Amino acid sequence: MAQGSSGGKPTGPKNNKGSSGGSSANSAASKPAASKPAKGKQQSISRKSVAQARTSNTNNRTQLIIGAVAIVVIAAIIIIGIVMNQKATQVQNAGYGASTKSVATESGGVVTVSNPTAAAGTSPKVIDLYEDALCPVCAEFEAQFGQQLNQAVDEGKLTVNVHMLTFLDPRSFSTNYSTRAAAALLCVAQQDGSQPGVYLGLHSALFASGTQPTEGGSADLTDQQLADLATSKGASDAAAQCITSAQNVAAATAADTSSSATLSAATGGRVGTPTVVQNGKPVDIQPPDWLTTLLAQP
To answer: Percent of the chain having pLDDT more than 70?
Structure first.
């Protein structure tokens, strides 16, 4: 029994070895089995990486295309805007220059500018123009349409009743510049209105860049400077004396009151400059061809 028992001992170890060998075999066998799924995963990951790379490239190309299209669209909008702005602000009848045939007559503070020597049978259109000498938008209006107005008057196609308003006085350095400038124009109309182009010459000069004071600025023209400007445009010494003596300041104030009331009635209560009125109704002066259209009316 003892031998049997001791003979049984080796059996145990053999079985243990076999068992141990079986574990090694299973472990060894399990390693290749585990490597197969790892390879499959790598291939799957690789395929996903390729797909992601392709998707990323596609997205990048799409973004580049969208960006390029956006740039083209923005550039087109800018170009169109520039072209439209150029058309809207284009100087009409550029190169014509100052009026050479117009004369001016004053009545009740309103100055009528026309060409009485126009060909017989000419029937000029009549407009009322409301401006303030300090108004910066009026300066833009004069820069864009002044030459066209001059030519139309010279050719006998247009008569302009000029109303100088003074509501911007408080915005001037002297607090009364608009009134004094309007008074200067009245002086020239009264003293030298029969001299061709003199009144419109001063009128244009008052709105010229470098001459018109800045609204709310720190300086404006003195009466002497207004007189000097008038004489530089052909006004007489009598007109200059009228300006420096402030002879027409009260008349300019009264004209502002009456013209403001007339303008308010035509516009439904709005008093602003520049404003053009024809036959008691305001004219849309936003289109650059507004005067061409007006002159073409039957």
So the answer is: 77
CATH number of residue 175's parent domain: 3.40.30.10
For residue 143, the tally of other CB atoms under 10 A from its CB is 15
Q: How far is CA 141 from the centre of its chain?
A: 14
- Cα(28)–Cα(32) distance, rounded to whole angstroms? 7
Whole-angstrom distance, CA of residue 297 vs CA of residue 266:
20
Domain tally, the chain: 1
- What would you measure as the largest C-alpha separation in the chain, in angstroms? 160
The mean of the pLDDT values for the chain is 85
Domain extent, residue 164, equals 103-295
Confirm whether 186 is domain-assigned. Answer: yes
Please enumerate, as own/partner, the contacts of 172-175 that have beta carbons within 8 Å and a separation of 24 or more. Answer: 172/134, 172/213, 172/215, 172/217, 172/220, 173/213, 173/217, 173/218, 173/219, 173/220, 174/220, 174/222
Residue 197 lies in a domain: yes
Side-chain-facing half-sphere of 298: CA atoms under 13 Å: 0
pLDDT at 154 over 90: yes
Query: Any idea which of 6-15, 74-83, 179-188, 271-280 has the lowest mean pLDDT?
Result: 6-15
Reported as a single tens digit per residue, the pLDDT across 10-55 is 344 344 444 444 444 444 444 444 445 556 666 666 666 766 666 7
Residue 171's contacts (CB-CB under 8 Å, 6 or more residues apart) are 134, 215, 216
Q: In Å, how far are 42, 96, 107 from 123, measured between CA atoms?
A: 95, 22, 22
Q: Alpha-carbon distance 207 to 141, whole Å?
A: 9
Tell me whether residue 287 is in a domain.
yes
